Amino acid sequence: MQNIVPLKCPKCNNTSLFYKYGKTKDGYQKYLCRKCHHQFAPDKPSSKKTPKYPRCPVCGKASFLHHDYEYYSNYRCCDKKCNHSFFVPKPTAIPSTSMSKLVGKTNFKRMRYPLHIILSALSMFFLGKNSFRNISLILKTTFNVEVSHTTISNWCRKFAPLFHNISLELIPMLNFNSDEWHVDETVVKIAGEKYYIWFVIDSETRFILGFHLTPYRDSRQAFALLNSVRNLGTPSAIVSDRYSAYKVPVKSLFGYSVKHIRVESFKNDISNNLIESFHHQFKAWYKAKQGFASFESANNLISMFVFFYNFVRPHSSLNGWTPAQVAGLNLTPKEKKKYLLVA
């Protein structure tokens, strides 16, 4: 069966007046436009090569590799009048965050105690300042259920992957295209050693977009953190302190359309007080637990704390709503039961 190729002159858009005009050296049929006399072979594959380097985002002209680094490449425009320098990340080289390395259970199967007892214990631990022994005592006096404080401690760690998966299902329903995202890091102690916990928070919803627990404080960790949240939304600006580790990650991952505001405490009109305030709440919860015993335990507990902060705990500054509700989460009673939410 003959293959009928729709013809259209690429020069004048003529669709009806053509002559067959021989064949190319590769055997493709050529045509001659009777209007503009342009010769073309519609079946011939395009000979245009994909440029080796990206085009300049300012003038659209070719660029060259200026410097090549581990997590990004620095390109410069070939036009000397433009001479624009820009960064392109290497997604496969950027490390993953600690919140993607949770270890534990992803369901409530084969649990000795009822679900409402487990959820009550988790809520008392992550929403209040109760110790495991106090929670055990409250469950005994309230529900007449004897639960060891060691069992409660295991619950608070082992269900982190389950609640993280719930968070991943709910986040696509939310909107984080806001004015500012705030990013900062603070110190925690794990078995007596100093570690850094990095957070990103949305200014309008107070939603914790991501976290990263690491023993190091450098640009590599900032790359990992910002790369993990870059697809959640598009802020107008990213606010950080004067620490230089944020400069290149923000430019390379978010481009020049997102402004990077580097503030200095008590001296700028725009401040990073929003995330500093969150650090006070986090430290109040963290210090009541008297530190963490291991990295795995700390990573799981922080993940659970972030889930309860985002989806369960009502905030007085948000008129009694949770950050997830402010971001657009509106679930039916049946869906709330499915996702283990009561807020």
UniProtKB/TrEMBL annotation:
<dbReference type="InterPro" id="IPR001584">
    <property type="entry name" value="Integrase_cat-core"/>
</dbReference>
<keyword id="KW-0233">DNA recombination</keyword>
<dbReference type="InterPro" id="IPR047930">
    <property type="entry name" value="Transpos_IS6"/>
</dbReference>
<keyword id="KW-0238">DNA-binding</keyword>
<dbReference type="InterPro" id="IPR012337">
    <property type="entry name" value="RNaseH-like_sf"/>
</dbReference>
<dbReference type="GO" id="GO:0006313">
    <property type="term" value="P:DNA transposition"/>
</dbReference>
<keyword id="KW-0815">Transposition</keyword>
<dbReference type="Pfam" id="PF13610">
    <property type="entry name" value="DDE_Tnp_IS240"/>
</dbReference>
<comment type="function">
    <text>Involved in the transposition of the insertion sequence.</text>
</comment>
<feature type="domain" description="Integrase catalytic">
    <location>
        <begin position="168"/>
        <end position="331"/>
    </location>
</feature>
<dbReference type="InterPro" id="IPR036397">
    <property type="entry name" value="RNaseH_sf"/>
</dbReference>
<dbReference type="Pfam" id="PF03811">
    <property type="entry name" value="Zn_ribbon_InsA"/>
</dbReference>
<dbReference type="InterPro" id="IPR052183">
    <property type="entry name" value="IS_Transposase"/>
</dbReference>
<dbReference type="InterPro" id="IPR003220">
    <property type="entry name" value="InsA_N_dom_Znf"/>
</dbReference>
<protein>
    <submittedName>
        <fullName>Integrase, catalytic region</fullName>
    </submittedName>
</protein>
<dbReference type="InterPro" id="IPR032874">
    <property type="entry name" value="DDE_dom"/>
</dbReference>
<dbReference type="GO" id="GO:0003677">
    <property type="term" value="F:DNA binding"/>
</dbReference>
<dbReference type="GO" id="GO:0015074">
    <property type="term" value="P:DNA integration"/>
</dbReference>
